[in-house]
Amino acid sequence: MQPKVFDSWLAVDRKGLYCRPGGFHIDPHGPAEKAIVTHAHADHARPGLGAALATEETLAIMQTRLGDGAPKTPQALAYGEVLKIGDVSVWLAPAGHVLGSAQVVIEWEGVRAVVSGDYKRQADPTCAPFELVPCDLFVTEATFALPVFRHGDPAEEIGKLLRSVEQFPERTHAVGAYGLGKTQRVIKLLREAGYDRPIWLHGALQETCATYERFGIDLGDLRPATGEKRETLRGEIVLGPPSAITDRWSRRLADPVTAFASGWMRVRARARQRGVELPIVLSDHADWDELVQTIEETGAGEIWVTHGQEDALLHHIQMTGKRGRALRLIGFEEEEDQ
User: Fold this and answer.
1) Would you say the pTM of this structure is higher than 0.70?
2) Does the keyword Hydrolase apply (predicted)?
């Protein structure tokens, strides 16, 4: 299939990626009448949607985070459940990114396109694992699409945090973690490593953790850190939004060890710029090896690349004989969850 054939039914307009025969956008970056939402992070799930299709979990998180800005007509679709929208067949496959995250599979006139949203292939106890879907066109993210980004073993990264807690029992460990996905993954990894003490949360993280627990993700003993006495938090692990770990909020903590859980912590300069004492290399996105592996395994002859480090990945795609294209969609910022 030639690129122009894909262009005839999947296009980029002022709202983002648009499926013409289905009449819907995928993760539009502003209000839209009809949309499919891959997951509930803020740069993919915007307020002001009319009819919106997503997993039950994504819709619940959107309601929690957006309130009155949540979709007016939400429709839940289970993984693997096929829905006909006009002449287009649509279904969702797990993306392995965060709870409820999905790849959007679109089939029309014998051709299959997969829009990945954000994804990872590392094991994650807080969400359904990534599912490979063979396709003709694969639209991939490229957040960490440079060979320097290889994320490593999550258990080893959590081990660094636990060793530091043991080494500095008089200090609070303040861990910056994005509220959707990263916070819950850090908590669950701590539990799997045998940490059974209370974990303390900044107020901004509590509602999303409660939503995870409603969907059966047991996070153990969680307690609000805001307003708690400094001595109570001495020797404890406190999770907060990355922005809170270095602002006035953290000053109430007892001589805190500042940590940050992010794929960007692979770059030491980033850690220094943020004043991070304990970088934890933990990402909810595919690293270079996973991106290359996934592109190969889909069997797609054409790859569209969006929101991230596009140039190196496009070069690799072209060197393997596939057709590559940078979509350059606007509206996908670098999030703190990476």
Assistant:
1) yes
2) yes
